[in-house]
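Run log // design_07
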């Protein structure tokens, strides 16, 4: 239906930067909101940042002023520029998309929950 693939993770020292990317592909009819979430070992998945089709953004307090989310609607991609990284930013970062998928017959349907998440990319920040 719809596929999401994250990339850009890696190992960096505290204070460094990384840029994550997520590409959506498949039978996309319309993607409304895209976002980044993260999950540290033994912790629940938490919201990092979201961006709507119109460009409205929302950030978790822990990353405000350090992370920037951006989107290319034409390419169905979303990016997360992470600056001034801290050890507590270490986590697997997941891409999420909300919207509709095209169907061979009939009208579009909501993107399937099982397809709304990528496989994640690991970010490790050393002290």
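design_07 sequence
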């Amino acid at each position: 239906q719809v596929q999401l693939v994250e990339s850009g993770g890696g190992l960096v020292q505290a204070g460094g930067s990384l840029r994550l990317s997520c590409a959506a592909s498949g039978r996309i009819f319309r993607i409304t909101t895209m976002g980044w979430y993260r999950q540290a070992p033994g912790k629940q998945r938490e919201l990092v940042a979201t961006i709507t089709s119109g460009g409205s953004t929302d950030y978790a307090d822990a990353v405000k002023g350090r992370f920037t989310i951006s989107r290319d609607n034409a390419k169905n991609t979303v990016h997360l520029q992470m600056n001034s990284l801290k050890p507590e930013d270490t986590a697997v970062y997941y891409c999420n998309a909300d919207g509709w998928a095209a169907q061979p017959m009939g009208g579009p349907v909501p993107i399937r929950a099982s397809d709304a998440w990528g496989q994640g990319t690991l970010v490790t920040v050393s002290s």
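The two ends are 41 Å apart (CA to CA).
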